[in-house]
Each structure stands twice: as structure tokens, then as C-alpha cells.
Amino acid sequence: MLHGVNHNMFGKREPKFYGTITLEEIDGKLAALGKELGVEVQSFQTNFEGALCERVHQAYAEKVDGVIINAGAWTHYSYGMRDALTILTVPIVEVHMSNNHARDKFRQYSVISEIAKGYIAGFGIDSYLLGLRAAVSASAAAQS
After folding, report:
1. Which one of 3, 7, 96, 128 is the catalytic residue?
2. How many structural domains comprise the chain?
3. Residue 79 falls in the annotated catalytic set
4. Catalytic annotation present for 18
């Protein structure tokens, strides 16, 4: 699970769009669902774009089975991050708590969507949980 810029401020930042759930609570719910599904979920959050790219490189080296990503504002313009993600040969699932297409015009474009297996948005914490289920399913299908 890759969390992008400003996600450490979930629970405080724009509750109208993101609710009051914190990043720690999101990660806890993902870990619990992962355990239920029989997978380990590793979560990483950074406010530094290069650190996110390096974590993607590490995921490649570790041969992870899938990636869920909410890149925050980087979703809309970070071609460096997108290029890092193209290194991966596993399913990538893009998630967002809010419905990007019902918000500011600049939020309606994603540089990630073209390379992602799927896109889930607008369901708050459930976007993450649905994303994990989708990543596990896509990874199992890719391995068979």
C-alpha cells in the first residue's frame, strides 16, 4: 500500500472529502483484511516524491505480488512516479477516498490509471479495502 503526499494528515485534512479516519486507522483496517485474506500488507507513506519512487523500486526488488496506490496530488502530474510504477510487472490498483471526477477539474486526470489494472474511488475507507480485495484477486489470477 503506497500512500502519497499529505496522507499523513488524514483525519485532519478536508473531512468533507476524506472523513475523519486517520492514516493509522486505514493501515490497521488494511492489515486486518489482509490477515483475513491470507496476505501481508506493507504500508508506506511519504511526502517526498523521490522516496515513493524508491519504495516502488524496492517493491520490484522484493517481488511483491501487487501494489495498491493512492498517490494523492501526485496522481495528477507525477510522470516520474508513473515511470517508476511501470517497472512493476504485478497488478497495480489505484484507489482514492473521494470521487476525483466530482471534484476540481485538475483532479479528474490520473497519470496512473493508464497503467493500473483498475481504479476505485469515492468510497472512503472502503476504496482501500475494495482495492486490496481487487489486488489479491488480480495477483492470484496473474499467477495461475
Report:
1. 96
2. 1
3. no
4. yes
